[in-house]
Amino acid sequence: MERKNKRLEDLARSGSPMRIAIRRLLADRLAVASISFIAFVALVAILGYLITPDSTPFANNQHLQLATLKPGTKVKFLLVRKQHDVKQRNLIGRMLFGQESLYDEIPVDSIYIDGYKVYAMEYNPIPESNAIVREFFLPEVLYGLDKDKKFLADGDTLIVFQNNGKEARVNMQDAKDELFRSRIIERRFWLGTDRFGRDLLSRLIIGARISLSVGFIAVAIALVIGILFGSIAGFSRGFVDDAIMWLVNVVWSVPTLLMVIALTMVIGKGFWQIFVAVGLTMWVDMARVVRGQVMSVREKEYVEAARVLGYSRWRTIFRHVLPNILAPVIIVSASNFSTAILLEAGLSFLGVGVQPPAPSWGTMIRDHYGYIIMGKAYLALIPGFAMMLLVLAFNLLGNSLRDALDPRE
Questions:
Q1: pTM
Q2: pLDDT in tens, 357-368
Q3: What is the DSSP string of 26-80?
């Protein structure tokens, strides 16, 4: 047993430093759980509209009569063919931007047919109130009709003039069978609906895409600016170092949230603006860490050797200094990722972040925090809980990376 344990310890210590760090990281259960959860959220966010129950752009299919339905509620829908052309996107387009539905979805309690007319009693959440009955022609439910000719009824046969120029002759009974077979569906809202009757699960999934996108782009901006200024300050010293650190201290002294709000007021509100605003406020952390690491590494023998060989300052920094300080940079990046997610959610909650109808976890909380005392707290708690888990996963991953990359371990 002692030999086996010693063999395992020798195996854990063998190999390159990166392989040793990876083995340490994979031996940490919390790290593996965090990586698995982040990978799952990233996969769901990438697939996006391909897996959401509501695949319309921004998951913004509203039905006010379905507002604040409880999780698991089933609703019957009548699908009425839209009478205008709907542009079809390819697979990548649908995944990234969603797809407008070919049908108008009408929530109904019951449907009956009289001749070639269809009567739909709309979903009524208040039983004692009067129900709304909507009337459609059977051909307009099934087909996109020519706006001038539409259709003719010839006994038990319908002559349909479609908007694509084609003409179809359909038996009345076959048309009724087609309606009940493919135009009446039942949909379950697994997480319920929001106050506008939109599917909460779909908006939660698309909101995850926005949160992860903000994290990736903001951290990338912070890495570029922070590494550039930090490495120049740490390697140059003197007046250049003093000037850069003065700028860092000025930015550091302004509260982060106020800085982001000020930047959004300057560059505007929107999807891409929030990425830039968050990234431009997070680079100071990276710059301070990189500067400290560069100041310690610049005195090493291999840096002195690069100077003696006549290598330029930029080559020395990017080829010999930066590769040896990646460990703390990776750790700070993991921490900044969770900070960016919280900043975006906070800005959206205040109304200066991602703008409606784009779904954001912060916007979802803002829209429904009043329901916490109305017996429907889950409307705000579900996106809040999702945000908490994602931020916790990045923080735990950062702690595990710190331990795995520590050369003293």
A1: 0.87
A2: 889 999 999 999
A3: HH-HHHHHHHHHHHHHHHHHHHGGGT-S--SGGG----GGGTTPPTTEEEEEEEE
